[in-house]
Amino acid sequence: MDQEYDIFELLVGRDEDEDYKKKPVIIQGITGSFGSTHSRLMTAYGTNIVAGVTPGKGGQTFEGIPVFDNMAEAVKSTGAKISGMFVPAPFFLNAAKDALDSGIKLLVAVPEHVPIRDSIKVLEYAKTKGAKMVGPNTPGVIVPQVMKVGIMPAQPFKAGDTVVFSRSGTLMYEVSFNLTKSGFGQRLCFGIGGDPINGTNLIEAFNMIRNKDDVRSVVVVGEIGGDAEELLADYLIETRFPKAVVAYIAGRAAPKEKRMGHAGAIVYGNYGSAESKFMKFEKAGVPVAKRPAEVPKLLAQKLRLQAE
Amino acid sequence: MRLLEFQGKELFSQYGISVPAASLVNSRDEAIQAAANLGYPVVLKSQLTVGGRGKAGAILKCKNASELLPKFDDLINKEVKGELPRGILVEEVVDIKNELYLSFFLNRSRRCYSLIASADGGIEIESVDNKVIFDIPLEGLSPEIAEGAARKLGLKGITPTAFVDFTIKLSKLVMEEEAELAEVNPIAMLSDGSLMALDAKVIIDDNAMFRHAELKKYEHISELEEQAGKSGFSLVELDGNIAIIGNGAGLVMSTVDMVTDAGGKAGCFLDFGGGATTETIYEALTVISKIRRIRGILVNLFGGIVKTNLVAQAILDAYKNNLIDVSLFARITGAESEKAKAMLAGSQAKLYDTVEEAIHEVVNQVS
Fold first, then answer.
1. Which one, A28, A288, B197, B281, has the greatest CB density within 10 A?
2. Is A224 an 8 Å CB contact of chain B?
3. What is the ipTM of this complex?
4. What pLDDT score does A4 carry?
5. Hey, what CATH class is B96-216 in?
6. In sequence order, what are the residues at sequence separation of 6 or more whose Cβ sits closer than 8 angstroms to the Cβ of residue B361?
7. How confident is the model over A107-145, as pLDDT tens digits?
8. Cα distance from B158 to chain A (closest Cα, Å)?
9. Closest Cα partner for B54 from B181, B182, B185, B183?
């Protein structure tokens, strides 16, 4: 699979790296109200934000962080490989191209309402540059107690050996918070995104962590729409995925053919229905929680069963 | 945005795809006039965004003038899956030799556009065995791919050429208008082997609408949805009596599920997005206040960055200004939640530590 990538190496690095746990990050849209709020919070969490980009504001600084007009200058002066994108959706395509042309290897695409065509274009372009994208319409990624690139609050997350992959932002916080309260810390929480097109899909996400010794279990937070969960279930069966997996799926009471907030959360006939996802997960031996608070209980059961 | 059939066919015509002669009518007089102009027989088609019109009896053929008005009256007042028609399309009846199926759709798992075609049109494509599927690049369909599809479908006579022409035009429409889906079921093969679109199901990417001012005229949203949209909220009206508000689409969906499990009926889904301030919550309550059937409000807000006392202030303001008069049950995590609880004491609003408790209370209250 050519989509494989090591998210930990990109975000955190290796022990021997000089900038281990301090990988430089650039924020595109750092001076906007959204970008500035979250840049402050990310920095406070431990993220090493080395530069910001806002066209027309080059030469200024934001909280001591230099601001550049474009990504070429920002990357040249910092060597960053990660960009947190906080630009409005209509500017996403050009901002992403600017980042990819400048050598960025990981785009964390926060904006919601990106046209589908633009997402596909960026994804195709990223492929030619050997770069990866998370999102769009993602809360971002967090390595608890190390760093985060995105808009998630800090308080739900705690370091540990569970990984959370989520199609929804607030549900990622909610489920992680429930895990934290029950003693399941997280190695990584990763927002797949609420759009129909995801830069990193569930299977690619699972591939990133399948051989990680410090990951013991995985929680997938899915929702109605599309067939990502169904394909993931097939993947889990076919590849004999080696870790404990539990799931939660939102939207089973939603009416058909109504877009439930997320661009990707819509059911056509049986395609994208919660029932279809439940059935496939059942086949794959993945327990599905009825509500977010039930996730830790199912995870504990699953781990107990696996230990036997 | 899902276009109505007549809107989709307008787009088809702009791209040179042939469609039957037709007029959209809203009154009996218009229907009589349109049918007379076309000549009998005609077919009356309810303009709805929901699928399954044929099965629901929302497409009726009229052999002569005496059948027209009873059938028109039947259709114009007929709800299908809760939706009333936005006009009736009066269309000529064409002589069909054969039916094909064609659609371009956003292939979510393959992250590209795909084409599906079949020589068995007129039925649901899921149940068709004889179909071809191809991935389509963003630049659009090449004649080579279209010719390959025509060959695989075993088309004969002038139809392969007509098919290539038809699919390339439809592909152009999909790419230029940024459609998520353009489905033609069926395409009629006429006696001379030429092709005509008998139906049109087109969905435009809502997020691309800022580039398509010309499609604005097709937008059909309720006043309430418009108001919600202006505030940056996502609103879906549902048929129950409990309003469900929260920050994040997934969280609100999840709350709707749990309310349903508890025996309650959600009356709306309202995601007010990130950043809860006194203003956003007050705006959300303003939207809710306009939905008459609501008997209770459930707020599920997962904060962290949110200051819950700001939320409590909005709720108090809404009661003080008589914006809302039903009880409100809230679960709000975030800073200052003790302060928020104290603020709301004695009001019609109550804060709970878990969403399960809040749901239990709201369901009890409304039933």
1. A28
2. yes
3. 0.95
4. 67
5. alpha beta
6. B329, B350, B352
7. 999 999 999 999 999 999 999 999 999 999 999 999 999
8. 34
9. B185
